[in-house]
Specification:
Length: about 90
């Protein structure tokens, strides 16, 4: 059983934070996914920029953990996803 990472409701489903045709695969590769309930899934799709900002922050955090500096992590996201949401 999956639980929403935002509110804790059971029955959550996986949401790709940086979504779209080409970005879904990249989100999978970069593990930019969250388990969210139906309400929060709909919220993220209605507020795509919020979802993409969270995804970019997760990406940058992961890159910094690998030893990238903050600016290098942001540049890496821009190159990989075609733009920055921050």
């Amino acid at each position: 059983m999956r639980y929403c990472e935002i509110c804790g409701k059971p029955g959550a489903e996986q949401h790709h934070l940086v979504f779209g045709t080409s970005n879904r695969k990249l989100s999978d590769e970069d593990q930019l996914v969250m388990d969210v309930c139906r309400d929060h899934h709909e919220f993220f799709h209605k507020n795509a920029t919020v979802s993409r900002i969270i995804g970019q922050l997760m990406y940058e955090r992961n890159k910094c953990a690998e030893g990238y500096g903050v600016d290098a992590a942001r540049q890496s996201f821009r190159i990989r996803y075609g733009k920055s949401y921050l």
